[in-house]
Amino acid sequence: MNRALAREMISSYVERPVASALAKVGVSPNMVTVMGLVGAGISAWLSSEGMLWAGGVVMLFAGILDLFDGALARSTGQDSPFGALLDSVVDRVSEIVVLLGLLIYYARGDSLEGTVLVYLAAGGSVMVSYLRARSEGLGIDCKVGIMTRPERIVALGFGLIVGHWVSVVILVVLGAIAGLTILTTAQRLFHTGRSLSGRK
Asked: In the prediction, which pLDDT does 109 show?
């Protein structure tokens, strides 16, 4: 199943029904966005205290919330440039905050490899998002790549849950995120460069 088809199925059977229910009880899109940020903060604290499985569960829940703010905004006519900007900023901050919690956890445990892998995963994630934003600023749609935000959220969430009991798992997941975000950055750079060359 390709990504576009999966995205459409999620939108039809999950996002729209839940967004409709949220609208009926008076929840605004920005409230959903902020709730996701709060969830990321709780996940970061849990992870920093060594409760990795709980941090992973809360992180996945916060990531699910991110599905609904855009759909809710569109269904209620509340979509706006500022709302889209807020959503993008909160997405970046949420991801960094969760990784910060994990960084604190490894720093407290004097784990050099864990600390380095968290740093590389955070740097790679920022670069993937930056390439998309910069490309779209040049008028080029740039959603290509193997390790986009949804994949990172799912991988890290499940990595935290399993890694609570099998510590090497989270290190492997962080290494995979770091490596694949670097690959995705290269894919997006190549895609944008080729698109710009085609304009000549």
From this structure: 94
DSSP state letter for 146: S
Phi-psi region of 50 (alpha: psi -120 to 50; beta: other; left: phi over 0): left
Distances (CA, A) of 61 to 46, 66, 99: 14, 9, 16
Q: Is the dihedral of CA 167, 170, 176, 178 positive or negative?
A: negative
pTM of the model: 0.89
In order, the DSSP letters of 61-89 are HHHHHHHHHHHHHHHHT---HHHHHHHHH
φ, ψ at 80 (rounded to 5°): -150, 160
Alpha helix (H) ranges present in 109-166?
A: 112-137, 149-163
| Residue 75: Cβ within 10 Å count | 17
- CATH number, domain containing residue 39: 1.20.120.1760
Within its chain, how far is the Cα of 73 from the centroid?
A: 19
Q: Which two structure tokens, joined as six digits, stand for 112?
A: 């050099």
| Domain hosting residue 40, numbered range | 3-198
Spatial contact of 68 and 32, defined as CB atoms under 8 Å apart: yes
- The count of structural domains within the chain is 1
Residue 179 to residue 160: CA distance in whole angstroms: 18
**Which range has the worst mean pLDDT, 19-28, 78-87, 101-110, 134-143?**
19-28
Residues 46 and 95 sit within 8 Å (Cβ to Cβ): no
